From TrEMBL:
Residues 348-460 form the DUF4218 domain. Pfam families: DUF4218, Transposase_21. This is PREDICTED: transposase.
């Protein structure tokens, strides 16, 4: 039943809550109608990343597990550990780099079989066999692994895979790094900032935003390039024109999947690391944190060399910071910021997305980047800052980021690290640990009288027994005890309505009625009274 959720029980109101609501999912079903007509066919996501299995980080050792996530499940089950499958474990001590295609060959062959033929599967819900097929929707990886999976190098002058050969770059001679400016070309053609060269790089912007390459565009471009053989016998050659006309390091093995070129998003940008790096760039520069700030003497010298923002050119005895050292307000001794949680970075990554909001966000991101170009030095604009202009488009096409970012993968890698008991054979320890965990998960589904992770008590169950009738609403059925002595207070009408609305919004019995009244303001004010009359 859960594998059919995306087809039968999903709310279809134009809001993005699940990959099944995304344009990428719907486009795939339209192109491959025979696959989309069977709701039991499985849509998959593939994730991989390297990690050090030992506690000693000074020892260089990298193991790369390859994980598969089924997307047919509802949001409260999707991406959870019991439904993650480790299909490969690439051994260390060195990472596979671009030779990862050699290890991926068995998995690609199985994916082709699952697409072309399928596998006979028993459906316990209808008690009959059917031919189940599967398709890989996209990959999930950090930015270095993005290069290994896609074949497009994510370093150098053409580091952006969406702008591709049209990536605007500039090598900073004093900062010894590449910066990525020119975000005015993403603005509307009649925007006033396109003519304000004095506030940017002393040029007028007439170029239009680059077109994102489709699967056919990539295949046509790769067909003109020499294919590189990878593995121990493969010679480490560079494709002609690399770094100037293109950034291709290889022909990705994923294009051997018959449907791969039809996907709208083949490899996801990692929102987890992008938001973290953008957050650190902004805070580090604004507060002049040592090792984090992008405003240094070399950055000022680059401004002077480019002939822009003369007021920020370095002078003898001048302060080299854009702002005062605000870190003294945080930690006067260390002049640093600590204790930041990941929530501080991804507060705006919502679980529910609306297409109108994403269209507005897509425009606002470009305007924000242009404003930053007028304030911060060029050294501030590394590739992570530039990639933010593509995040809203990805969210609009592929759906909410919680199904496509690396947080779930990183947590699972931490779990794999706990399996290592024999440090002489970490791969064997991880393989046995995963196998044992899969066996326990399988058997626990049939142990109904034993507490398992599938039937354990609620997290907030403290063993108390409520004095009220628990058969009325499920939200009041959780046992609990009062924390301290109760205090009587009189509630206003507004507060009572707000509390009633909150309870009903989080009650399973009221969910079928939530989407009937879809006007947000009237829904908030009138829903509790309306449902009481049903």
């Amino acid at each position: 039943v859960d594998m059919r959720w995306h087809f039968k029980d999903r709310v279809k109101d134009g809001v993005l809550r699940h990959p099944a609501d995304s344009e990428a999912w719907k486009s795939f079903n339209q192109i491959h109608e025979s696959f989309g007509m069977e709701p039991r066919n499985v849509r998959l996501g593939l994730a991989t990343d390297g990690f050090n299995p030992f506690g000693n980080m000074n020892l260089h050792y990298s193991i790369w597990p390859v994980l598969i996530y089924p997307y047919n499940l509802p949001p409260w089950m999707c991406m959870k550990e019991p439904y993650v499958f480790m299909t490969l474990l690439i051994p260390g001590p060195k990472g596979p780099c671009h030779d990862i295609d050699v290890y991926m060959r068995p998995l690609i062959d199985e994916l082709r079989t699952l697409w072309e033929i399928g596998v006979e599967t028993y459906d316990i819900y209808v008690k009959q066999n059917f031919q189940m097929r599967a398709a890989l929707l996209w990959t999930i990886n950090d930015y270095p692994a993005y290069a290994y999976m896609s074949g497009w190098s994510t370093s150098g002058k053409l580091a952006c895979p969406y702008c591709a050969s049209n990536t605007l770059h500039r090598r900073l001679s004093h900062g010894s790094k590449t910066c990525y400016l020119g975000h005015r070309r993403f603005l509307p053609s009649d925007h006033v900032w396109r003519n304000q060269g004095s506030q940017f790089d002393n040029t007028r912007e007439r170029r239009l935003a680059p077109k994102r390459p489709s699967g056919d565009d990539v295949i046509n471009e790769l067909s003109e390039l020499r294919e590189i053989t990878h593995g121990k016998d493969g010679k480490k050659h560079t494709i002609f024109g690399f770094g100037k006309d293109h950034n291709w390091k290889k022909h990705s093995i994923f294009f051997q999947l018959p449907y791969w070129k039809t996907l709208l998003v083949r490899h996801n940008l990692d929102v987890m690391h992008i938001e973290k790096n953008v957050f650190e760039n902004v805070i580090g520069t604004m507060m002049s944190i040592d090792g984090k700030t992008k405003d240094s003497l070399n950055a000022r010298l680059d401004l002077q060399e480019m002939g822009i923002r003369q007021r920020y050119h370095p002078e003898e005895g001048d302060n080299d910071g854009y702002s005062g050292n605000l870190s003294r307000c945080v930690n006067a001794s260390e002049r640093n910021i600590s204790g930041m949680k990941t929530h501080d970075c991804h507060e705006l990554c919502a679980k529910v997305l609306r297409e109108d909001d994403l269209n507005l966000l897509d425009n606002q991101i470009v305007i924000t980047l242009c404003k930053l170009e007028k304030i911060f030095p060029p050294a501030f604009f590394d590739i992570m800052i530039h990639l933010t202009c593509h995040l809203a488009w990805e969210a609009k096409v592929a759906g909410p980021v919680q199904f496509r970012w690396m947080y779930h993968v990183e947590r699972y890698l931490h779990k794999l690290k706990t399996y290592v008991r024999n440090k002489a054979h970490p791969e064997g320890s991880i393989a046995k640990g995963v196998l044992g965990d899969e066996c326990l998960i399988f058997y626990s589904r049939y142990l109904h009288r034993v507490e398992t992770k599938f039937n354990k008590r609620d997290r907030n169950d403290d063993g108390g027994q409520p004095s009220y009738d628990t058969s009325l609403l499920s939200i009041f059925s959780t046992p609990g005890r009062a924390f301290g002595k109760g205090v009587l207070r009189e509630m206003s009408i507004e507060l009572h309505k707000a509390a009633t609305h909150y309870v009903l919004q989080n009650c399973d019995e009221a969910l079928p009625f939530v989407y009937v009244d879809n006007v947000e303001e009237s829904h908030r004010l009138q829903f509790s009274n309306w449902i009481s009359k049903r």
